[in-house]
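Morning run. Coffee first, then this:
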Amino acid sequence: MIVLTFDVDSEGRPLIELFVAVSVPRITVLEALGEAPPSPVAVRALVDTGASRTNVQRSVLDRLGLEAVGEELVHTASTAGEPKQVGAYAV
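And here it is:
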């Protein structure tokens, strides 16, 4: 059996340190163009085993120079039961 141990925030929610980077296909294209891919961005993330998606702050995506590859409807606690259309990104 695998057991994982996490740090927790002030409310007891599990957190993990990780890096967000551009996708492997994006790295391949950039390198083929003779450009260096952006460095991965270190983030502190909330581990939510019930989540159906991974959400990343816009500032992280901006640092990676990413643009949306599509859009999706997302339900959150702050959307009062109504979905919100948000960008989808390849990371």
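Residues 8-88 form one domain. Good start to the day.
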